[in-house]
Amino acid sequence: MSKEPIILSIETSLDDTCAAVTRGTSVLSNVVSSQTSYHASWGGTVPDIAKRLHHEWLPRVVDRALSQAGSPKLDALAVTIGPGLAPSLEQGIAYCKLLATKYQLPILA
């Protein structure tokens, strides 16, 4: 029987910064950091603000997801590539590429 892959997934398509760790079809952790209060006074999501907050929050959200999952050895990374706001997606993709290079892991998109 083959081992079920452990995957860290990153989601930044709009205004929430999210990371989850899964083993096969089981969710080991799911962390969501909402930006809603930061955009409320503007009446909707402001792309530049969303981009900055994703950049700031991604390391903490990913670290929390990994910690809650028991810091497993990852087999791959996954990231949302669309649809969504381009500046938000760019942050998630860039951070995923950074992790892939650092840990020599494949990216699923």
TrEMBL record:
It comes from the Bacteria. Gene3D superfamilies: 3.30.420.40. The keyword Transferase applies. Keywords: Acyltransferase, Metal-binding, Transferase, tRNA processing. One of its GO terms (molecular function) is metal ion binding. This is N(6)-L-threonylcarbamoyladenine synthase. The lineage of its organism: Bacteria, Candidatus Collieribacteriota. Residues 27-108 form the Gcp-like domain. Its EC number is 2.3.1.234.
